[in-house]
Please model this.
Amino acid sequence: MANFMKAKLFVLILPMIVVSIFISSCDYYNHKLKLHNKSKEIVTVGHTDRELPDEMNNVEYYIADYSAIMPDSTYDIVIAGKDNAWHWYIDHSPRKKLFVYVFSVKEISQYRGDVMGDIIRAGKYLKRFEYTEQELIDHNWTITYNGN
Model:
């Protein structure tokens, strides 16, 4: 009877182990790109594949605690996808470039809703970076914001 219970337990647990291993081996988010905030200000960052984006997340996403980048800290700019996600994103962009906008959390917190594109078009960002994939590789996938 004990062997029967062990076999039954094994049959029940084995699929859970296999699924756990499969899920843990999947890399659905790419954390390769980083922004290092060397300024004295709390900032946030948005990225897009075009100079003037059509869509971005709403302001609340960018001012949330998990998106705020404290002074002298580094933040992962995450994109959905595997190891080649940034390559694919940049390669399929209209100008083969990635545009990264740095915003003051304090400044944009006065806005609400889906207005990040309007904020960018109005020039209410601290800094705009634009990089080809090769430039990002040359910078070891790290963008440094110095506050100017």
